[in-house]
Each structure stands twice: as structure tokens, then as C-alpha cells.
# Entry
Amino acid sequence: MSGFRVQNRGLIDRHKTLSFQFDGKSCTGHPGDTLASALLANGIKIMGRSFKYHRPRGVWGAWFDDSNAIFNISLGAIQLPNCPAATTYLEDGMQARSVNTFPSARFDIKGVLDWFSPFLPAGFYYKTFMRPNWHLFEPTIRKMAGLGKLDGNIIEEYQSDQIHQSCDLLIVGAGPAGLAAALSASQKGSSVVLVDDHDIAGGSSYQQQSNIENKPASLWIRDQIAAIAGNGGRILLSTTAYGIYDHNLVALIQDSGFGHAPRLWRMRAKRILIATGAIDRQITFANNDRPGIMSAVGALEFLGRYGVLVGKKIALLSNNSHTQNTANLLREAGAEVETFDTGDNSPVAIGGKKLRALNIDGKSHSCDVILASGGLTPVVHLWRHGGGRLEWNEAIQAFIPAQATTGMRAAGAANGIYELDEALADARAAALDQPSPKVQSAYQIKALLPDINSKKRQWIDFQHDVTVKDIELAARENYSSVEHLKRYTTLGMASDQGKTSNMAGLAVMASLQNRTISEVGTTTFRPPFVPVPFELYRGVKRQQLFNPPKRLALEAEHRNVGAAMGEYGGWLRPAWYGDDDPHNTIRKEVISARTHVAIIDASPLGKIEIMGPDAEKFINFVFYNTLTTLKPGKIRYALMLSERGIVYDDAVITRVDQNRFIISCSSSHVEGVNNALEGWRQDGNDPDRIFVHDTTQNWATITLSGPKAGELLSKLDMSIDLSPDAFPHMTFRQADFLSVPARISRVSFTGDPSYEISVPTLHASALWSAIAKAGKSVQAAFIGVEALSILRAEKGYIIVGKDTDGETMPHDIGFSQPRLRKESAFVGDRALHTHAANGQNRRQLVGLMVKGNECKIVTGAHLIDQSGSKPRSIGYVTSSYDSPTLAHPIALALLENGTARIGESVAVWNQGDIRQATIASACFYDKGGGLLNA
Amino acid sequence: MQQFPCPFCGLRNEQEFHFAGEAGKTRPDTMKEVSAEQWSAYLNHYNNPMGKTCEIWVHLPCQEYFVMQRDTVTMEVFASEQIRKDLK
Amino acid sequence: MTKTYSAFNIIKEAFKGHKGWSPAWRSPKPKAQYEVIIIGGGGHGLATAYYLAKNHGVKDIAIVEKGWLGSGNTGRNTTAIRSNYFYPESCALYDLSVRLYEKLSIELNYNVMFSQRGLMVVFHSEAEMEMAVRGMNAMMLGGTDARLLDANEVKQRAPLLNYRADARYPIHGAVIQERGGTARHDAVAWGYARAADALGVDIIQNCEVKDVIIEGGTMTGVETNLGPIRASRFGAAIAGHSSVLARMAGYQLPIHSYALQAFVSEPLKPVIDVLAFSSTYGAYISQSDKGGLVIGGGLDRVPSYGQKGNMPMQENVLSGIVEFAPALAKVKLMRHWAGIVDVTPDSSPLIGPSGVEGLYINCGWGTGGFKAIPAGGYLFAHLLATGSHHEISRPFDPSRFQSAQLIDEGAASGIAH
# Structure
């Protein structure tokens, strides 16, 4: 033995030495060490400070059951906060800093807080810091609180893999029970996945130097693994099952090493076997939080896995038979060990930063470590996540799995069965879904009743500094429900989420209330079982792949001519073209559209086909406007309402022939409209007589708009008569474009003559090239969505969702006739005649004008009524632009009773500034509509 | 992540489904007089049961609406069936 | 016994080992009869009892709670308090709540840790900014504070957020409500409970209503696991379980119950000083006084009474929050949980008569019940005491669904609720 390292024990690689620093001190360790084991081997016992009183802390447990030693670790450029020392494997060059200490865990200036602890009992902050205002005290308190420090650096390569898999049986825990179960099930041909959070299978077998089924443990483990693999079973190491979710979905996190994003496995298991083992419970006694007081199981783990002897002179304090062999194992490793029964005595730990003695039965026993074993506690967290119930087992003084949900079992120590042979039999039965064999447990434990009258401080939650006195105070103040206790004292809310503290806390509450632990009950076990980085949930859902936008077939063509792309309704579309000042560019695009012709990629517009003998009846029901009178070859503008009568979308509907319609809805509403259509089709109609098919992505659409739109179209040589009489506004033609079927709709979103030309998406590029080429002779301009928005606003055409809101009904935006006249039922019909729908003060779509030399109104400004004591909102501006066409600002607004007020003045309010505007009709351009028909 | 049985496609992850309301609701015949109470009940009254429930869901990839019986507490799914009876 | 909470009394008690503190509330046995019974010992129920006793002089009140105080959504939320609503009716309601919160610690003599650190709704495009201006002006006209921040100001307030060129949604600006903030959720329940108890309210925990007693169309009692308890008026404030009581009493509500998840990270030293919301990322974040990052987002997609969350929404919310604040990728999630929220078609609450004589309801707060606790209690107490609405609660009467006078905050404001 050199220092605290024991020869011939442990799984570490002694051939290599790793250097690291802890709180600025240089240390060494070996591959296979955790930071906690390496520090213990270096003789360092103080690894942190508690959260509240900054008491010195050493490790309590050797794995996830430690909440004391938490580090900020840097390795190269990577820094990670809040790394548990007991579960972080050592790498060469690591720089570890204990969290929330200054300058170090050993000497922490905030340690003085402990002197004030009498003034800082549980929940003290609820009783003070009220005057004048909590927020004045808060910044200081916030700085005192918190654990690790987060640097702002982003690790570029930090990206989690996310994997979906399924299996017949997922076994959590590759200890002896898990291995035995995996082999049994895999022999029967089940697909088995066995996971373990350590990087090596074997579980608790490393604690005891005993044989398993007459073989040395390492051999037995090797044989099981080989046989499981031979049967096709999968074993995932360094993998923690951290949550069980509905329908047997188990979330697994697989460690990828420090600074590398872990991997997420979403494992769907037909059956789940919890073989997660048991951990040591702490013992509640005076000064039990001192560095050097540790879990007995933890000490064996440090010895068995890392070859570290936690102390040279050890006092072993236990109330149970599980520690019978512990002293021997420690002695074999070279320690002096004295054993003590907790009995009815009140032990006291003597020492400060360095443990000196255990006082018990009036005698002082010098020691450098106290191992405290308050009994084995099955790890039942996952069991509870999966909806399994727990029952209190008086004989073993623990909550153990009781009634299972379908498809979940527990086995071995997790099931309260601690003897190896019994655990193996239990696991094999569980693996085959057979009844568990009856077990006569040899495990003996004495109920631990904490001394609630002790004057000394006895710790329950080591990280959060919750003592017996705090629990007493909570009970005295009647925070007696176990959840109140937890929330009031913060017991169990530390980063281990109560793994080390819950049972001790329940025992104190039970003693105080003269109840049993089972009557006190447990708090809810919530995932994750161990903390997991947020990245785990992100994976590829980052940057452009987080809600990826839809891309146009012509994106490359747009970029070739300098398009600035922007996102509109979920589509990446040209906002404008060119690198010049956007405002000027957009203005020029509008003017080109008005004077010559604009070329617009309108492909995102919906193209939902409705076919079948009942198509007419159906579409007439789903849309507000009467569509039975629409003739084949004609197009009509229509609104889709919700059943509450609210405008959900607008669309132009083409009747291709008697039984076939194409709905061209807003680009952002295609899915919603399609779902609504399908819903009505299948519920209340004969679905065999109607067919709904969304072809939006099958067709690309290019719109030509402007006085020269017809001239440009004629150059494409599609052999159709474009004279206004032959092809009037709101009609539809099918044609050929380069022997490909094309559709041409004469429909306008600008107020000028417009043709929407659609071809199958594969031919989008050819159409684009032909138009671009032909467009040169008519000074055609590519225009983006921004210019289009202005053009449509000049004409008073709305964008649903922008110029309408969650109250807008069709009669508010000028479509009153169907409400009054339509002779058949339609979606939302009854809702258009409620008290609210008939109200006098509905907000209606109007235009707003200001003088030509004034600046435009701010979109989002409100219109106010100033007649009362306070200004009252009577509407707001929905769209507002400097109109290039009209050379003055224009705006659209929703205004109470607006149509009746056209011509009046209204006050416009923005962030307290008031200006006047004149209420106008919503149409500013070609009010007579003559141009549309030109 | 729950899994729901689409009667047409089989068991699929919950993200593929959209809740479309409680089953058993009939749209009032709006060509006849419908009182404000009736209309409001149609729009706004939900059973929202705690426990067993019967609901309409749509499987988005196949666009088929169907009826599913499940438990709103345990999340157990009992059955799903297509709305149309004539195809069985 | 020491009853009053103050720094002085803490020091005084420290010398006595804190043995003199009196119980925060009693645990009385229920009487056979009360004047008013409040069903539900969450924030709204406790606040209702408190204001009934304090503002209206009603002395004979019981609260029956099936679990422990605050065991529903009061103890499960992300503690955000704000009044950034669109419609004047909502502004009035939630701003009343913020104003009551501002004085609550002193009024209750219980520090609820209302921290007005500012609540910032971040917007990611020029189109969103236009909606932001619309909403901000609505708030200002509605009597709530609001201010527009440009992208630089957002960065100053929250350097943690994503200002990189490759951000999925760049930050264009924000609307901040400086009076918005957070409070300690349990403390709100406990503070009201302690104050109500001091005014003589019987708070009866572990008392589950198994059925209602209705005689001649009027509700006269509740059957509980502790036996029948009668009263002349009943107020139900049971959030996600409102439909369960409705079924017992024979009425229906415009409510669907959904699980709403919340997330908290391991404690960190302060990294963000403001609550930052983003509808586009579908997530929001604040940092608790203890140091945990408290994160919330949208509803799970499956109607549910199962008080636990599901992975799809976890992935949506947490991937959203990391895209919103990429430095958080390596921060660890410590705990996640869910509450059952009562979602109405217009995302606004229901306060008013249930339809059964003698029974009034306060529910439908959806994801926003915590922030409304003081106002909900204050207004519900008014209704229970007088039988008629306070001006502020009148628009939220359930009858608005029949007259179709919805207050559709969900559709109007574009702010996630």
C-alpha cells in the first residue's frame, strides 16, 4: 500500500499515470479512476462545501449517491459545470475546481456562514427580507447561491446522437442479478438489452471478494457476458436508464467521455427489469456531515473498483448485517477497523476538517474515517417512474417494489433481496416472467430511530445543510406533509435529488410525529435519475434543422439573381432581389410591378385538390362563400371559417370541372386547411364521394403581374388566347408548356392583371428560365415577398392572421352576403349570428390615410377613443407602408365600427405618441377594379 | 413518447397524431333553428373525463381520422377503430 | 409562541433554538357545517379563503384539499408572474394580480420572494416585431407597463441568448415588462394558508371530495373521505380537475386537461437576470434564487390527467431553449415534472356560477394560473361573498361562451400562454 492506494485491488490501469489539478493543487491518478477516487488516493478528503453553511464536505458515496463533491472541470478549452467527482472519470490534464468555494474547498471564506447558522434555520428567508422589497436583497442572495459557474463558451462539436431502438426485455443494471436475468432471457430467444451505468459490468460484485456460483466473480461475469452476447443480447455500458415514460419508453444516456456529448437511446421495451441494486443509507448522528464520514458500501466500491482505501483507521458504524464482511475486507486491504453497533447509543463524530474520533458509549475511539451504514436501500427510482408502487418492508426497513404495472419487474437488491444466490434466482425468474421464488432473507437490520432530542447538529441533507433541527422546526410549524417538509427545508432537493437524504429525513419525521416511515410516505421520484445535459434532447434539432423552413424548388435560381431570402409562413422565399438598400429595392420592385410586369415565385400557395361527385356540396359546406354557382373554368375568392365563425384562411378556388376543384390557400395554412378538409370529409360526409389531395409540393407556381403580364405570357407560346374576353379575370386555363401540362389562373393579389402559371415542380426551372428570358423585352422585374406585401396592401387585399385576428368574422372584412343569404349550411354559420357576431362595435377592416408628407404610421399602433378619462383602444394598425405607387403612406387597420366611420378622423396611438389619420376604404389602388379586367 | 394504433398504419409515435376532439359529438343541423345554448354546447362542452375516454384522432401522415379509446390517467390505449364501419 | 415573522424574531428565536415558532396553520378536524367551503387548497383556493375572511368578513370557512396544500399546479409551475396581455379585460385582471403580488409579502407577513426582475418576450423577425408593437401598445393602453427593446438592448439584458449568425431565429427585439418576475410558488400557498388560518379559516388537508350533495337543485354539501361536510356556498378552485367535479355535479365545462411540463437544471451561479420568453422557440427561461434554470414551454399534445411529462415535448422545449441560449447545451437537467392544466378555448379563465345553485367555479387558467393567484382569490372571494361579479371578473363569467364574447388571448396576442 502506498498512501491510500492498495496493490492488487481495483480495475484501474496502474501502468499509466494521469496528472490533474484540484483547487490548484497538483495530483495524480490512473485511467479508470474517478476524480473522487483519485483525490482519496492523494489523501484529499475535503472536496467541497455545503450549499448553505459552507461546511467542509468529503465524498459520501462512490457513485451517483454522492452530492458533496461537485466540481467545475476544465480540460483544454472545454469547461463543464457541476461535474460530480464520484461519477466523472479522470482524464489527463483536468483542472477541477470545487464549486461555490473561495479560494478552495479546504479554505473557504464563506465558511464563516456556519457561525451564523443559528440565525439561518430552515425557511428563514420566508420570515424576513420583506421590507422594503425582496428584490433588494435578492441579487446578493443569488450570488451566494448556485453551484457551478457556466462559462459562455459554446462547444461546437457538442452534439448528441439520438437513437431509437426496441427490445423484448430491457434490464437495467448489469450486476449479478442483471447478468443472470439477461442470460436467462436471451437463452429463450428474447431480444435483450442490458444496460449499466458503470463502464464495466459486474455491479456490486466488486465490493465483495466472493465467488459467484462457485466461480471467481470476474470469471463468472466474463462467462455471462460471453453467453449473453452469443445469444444476441446487447450490453450497453456507461449507460444510465434515467427515466421511464409512457408505453414503456425508457430513456438511456450513454456517456461519451468528458466534453463529448452523450448519446440518447430511446428504448422501447416490451418488458423492463429493474436490477439497479441498493445503496447505503446514512446514519443520523451528531456531526455526521464531517469529511471522512462515508457510506460503507461506498468504501467497498472505492476499494474494489479503484484500489483506494478510504482511511487507515476506520470506525465502522452499522445497524445491519450487510457490513459483516466489510471490516474484514478493509482489514485485508491494510486498514485498522473497529466496528460499532448503532444500538441505542448516540455517537458523536469528533473533528473539524479532519476527523479525529468517534465518541460512542462514553468512549472515544480515534479514527480518520467513519463508515456509516444505515441499511441497504433499494434503488427504486425507475420503478416509480414506470408507475410501479412501493411498499414498506419492516423486516428490511426499506421501501421495496410492490405491485407492478404491466411489463415491469424488479429483481435482486433493487427488489429487496440482498443474498447473492437468492438474488440470482429472483432475477432468473423475473427474466422469464415467472413468479419470484419465496425468499427467507438472512439480512438483519435494526430500525434506526434518530435521536431527536440531541442538542448537537445532525445532518440529513449534506449538500443543502438540512439538519434534524430543521425537520423539527418544519414539524413544529406544521409543514408535516412529506412534500411540505421537503419544500420547506429543501431536504432532498440537492443535486442528488434525495438519494442520500430522503430515508433519513423520513425517519426523523416519523420519530417526531410518532408515525411509521410508511405512514410518512415518500416524495415523488421524478426523472431524470441522474442529471443529463440539455444537449441530450437536442441532437440534430439545431440551427437550420430546428424547425427547418420549407425550401423552394427555385431557390438556386433566386439566389443566382441576387435574392435576399427571408422566412415567410414557414417558407424560405425571396424577400427582395439585389444588394442595394432594401427599402429602395423594394420600392423599385413595386414600381416595376405597377408600370411593367413583376415575376413572383408563388409556389408556396396551397394547391389542394377536391374531387368526386360530392365535391361541390362538400366545398360549399366547408367554405363561407357560395360555391355551387361557380362554373367550371372559373375562380372565386372564398373564406374558410372556424366553427366559431372566425376567419381561418382565405383561398381562391378554381373549379376545374364539375367534380374537381383546386383550393389555393395561404402558404402558411396549407396543413391546417388540409386537416380541416379531411376532418369534414371523414366526419359527416360520404368519404367515397369526395377525395382531398394536397398537391402543393407537386406544382411550382410563377406569377406574372402588371400591365404587361399578358404580353409576357404571350411570349411563352402556350397557345392560348389571352384577350380579356377570351381569358377574363378569375378564370382558369389548362395549357402546355414545352409539352408539359401547365395551369394558368388569372387571379390577382396586386390589383393589376395577373397570371399564375403552375407546372409540375420538376419543370419549375424551365418555366423560370423561359419567363426570365422573355421578360427582358418587357422590362420585367423579379420581385420578392416584401414588394408583394405592399402591392396587395395598396389594393386592400388582406393577409389572414396579419390583417385579421382571433375575433375577425367575414362581415368584418366586407364579406356579408353569405352570412345573410347562403341557402345551405356551412362551417361556422351559426356562429355568425350570436350576440357577439351581431354587435355594433365589431372591429372592421378599413384603410387609414395620412398626409403625403407625413411618415407612415407604425404597424401595431392602436386607434383610440379619447372621449373617456383614459384613452381606450378601438382598434389597431395591421399593415402600413409608404406606398410607392401612390406616393403617400397607406395603412390597413381593424377599427370598431370602422366602415361607418370612413372619412372621419381617428387618433393613432403608439407608445404614448398620438397623431391623426383619416379613415378610408381599405382599397387605395384602382378602387373601381377596372385594371383587373384589362 | 406514447404510441397510438392507427387503424390503417398500425402503431406509431404520438408525434404523428393530432387530437381532434371527443367522440360522440354531432354538429347541430344549422338549417334548422339552433339555440345559442345548443350551439354553445356543441362548441364548448367537453366531458374531459379523468380515466376512460373515447376520442377522435387523426394520423397526420395518412390523414385518416379514427376513434380511440384510452385512459387519460394511465395512458393505456384500449382500442382504436376507423370511423367508417362499412370497410370492416 | 412567536407568530410574527421578522429578522428580529429570527434572532430572538435563534437563542431559544427556534422552539417558539407557532404552527403556520392548524390541522383542524372538519366541522359538520360551514358557511363557505372552498374546494381545492392550492393558491387560488387559499387566496380566496383569505380574502373572503379579510375583505368580506366571512368567518366560517373551510378549505378542503385532497392532498397537501399547494400540491396541484401551485407547487408545479415555473413561477412566472406577468400581465402582458392583449385585451383590456385581461390586462385589468392580471395587473390586479401583479399589484397584489407587489404588496403580498408584507400583507401576509410571509416572504413570497416576488422578484420583479423583468419579463422579456423576445421576437425574431420584423413581422413578429410588428405583432410585438401591437401587443405592447395594448398593454400600455390596458394599464400595464411595457417597453420595446431593440436587439442591442436585449443583448444587454440577457447576454446568454443566441446572437450568433447561425441562430435559427435571430433576435430582432423584445417587449419587456419590468414589473414582471417570479415568486416562490410554495411560499405563496403557505403565506396565504398561514394568513387565512390566522383569520379562522379551517384548512383541511387530505380531505378528498368524493361526491357532491345536491338537494332541490342546490348544492348543500360534499361527501369526503372524512365524512359529509355541509355549507351554504361552495367555491371550487381545482384547476385541471375541474371537469371531475363538474361531472359529479352534472354540468360541463369548456375545458380540456393537459399536462404542462416544467424543467429545472442543476444550480448555477447567476447567468440570466430576466425571464426570457420566445414563442418561436416554444420555450422560456428564468433562473431561480437557488440558481436552477427554470424552463417551460408548451403543452403536451395528448389530453391527460397523468401528472408526468412525456419525451416529445421535453425534446421540443429543451432543444428550443438550447437554440435560444446555446451555452446551455452542457447544463444539466436535474428534474422535470408536470402539472395538469385546464385549457379553455380562448385561453382565458372561468370565474362565475357553475350552473348548480350554490356552487361557483374559478378555473380555466390554463398555463397561467400561478401568476393570477392573488387576483383569482380576490375576485372569487368577491363573487362568493356578494353573489355578484367584481367589475374585473365579470367578463370572465362562463356565460361568455354562450354569448360568444370570448377573450381570445391565445389568438390575439401571439404570446405563448
